[in-house]
Amino acid sequence: xxxxFFNPSQPQTMQVAVFLLYANVVIGLLFRTGNQxxxxxxxxxxxxxxxxxxxxxxxxxxxxxxxxxGSAACAYLIANEKRIGWKAGVAVAAAPxxxxxxxxxxxxxxxxxxxxVIDIGLLFDVALLAxxxxxxxxxxxxxxxx
Length: 146
Prior knowledge:
Blueprint: H1 12-31, H2 36-47, H3 53-79, H4 83-106, H5 114-117, H6 120-132, H7 135-144
Helix pairs in contact: 1-3, 1-6, 2-3, 2-4, 3-4, 4-6
């Protein structure tokens, strides 16, 4: 079986999702910011301790690394039509949205509004999740993925 990083025979929604997953990897490696701040703030909000910032920073960095590695693995597996890649891709796409929701709902260390969290990266995360959950992508995944 041929291994590939991009599959032009897949539907356009899935091709764009694979591209966005690879873009997450490149942005995360180049700028070392691929949702790292959101993960740190959400971890700090869950710890709820002023001196827990170091623990939150460590946890946020670990989550950011898992996010970058997971994005690369999911993109590769989706391009090679593996069902586990699509399922993990949905989880990887939802992780920054969950982190942003934690920041808004808990709002620690200060009360945070939705406007404070919305940026261009969040819009790309929403687009990635929408592309992976699109009906065209889902029907292709159900028929062709192993």
